[in-house]
Amino acid sequence: QVQLVESGGGLVQPGGSLRLSCAASGSIFSISSMGWYRQAPGKQRELVAIISSGGDTNYADSAKGRFTIYRDNAKNTVYLQMLSLKPEDTAVYYCNALQLGRLYWGQGTQVTVSS
Asked: Could you give the 3-state DSSP secondary structure of residue 53?
């Protein structure tokens, strides 16, 4: 079992920045990739960014150029640095981890972009 705990969400003005953290614990061996997804009210959950165990990254078009995903393997933590935030980035952000074909999810952290 893998436990994921997100943190770092909050209220930020348009143009502001936030850094989300996702700490993994438990049986964390063989985690092949970790990612960030988001779900806005009334919308489906969507991919934001993903990073492989080797450090390869992939971003949604909406995140390219503004968001950066990176991981600190020593801390078993994945981060999402978000810059130039827009109101449409408002959502609950979820971290996930893929381990041996099984997907684990965190509880989510709310990000609200509003003036």
From this structure: coil
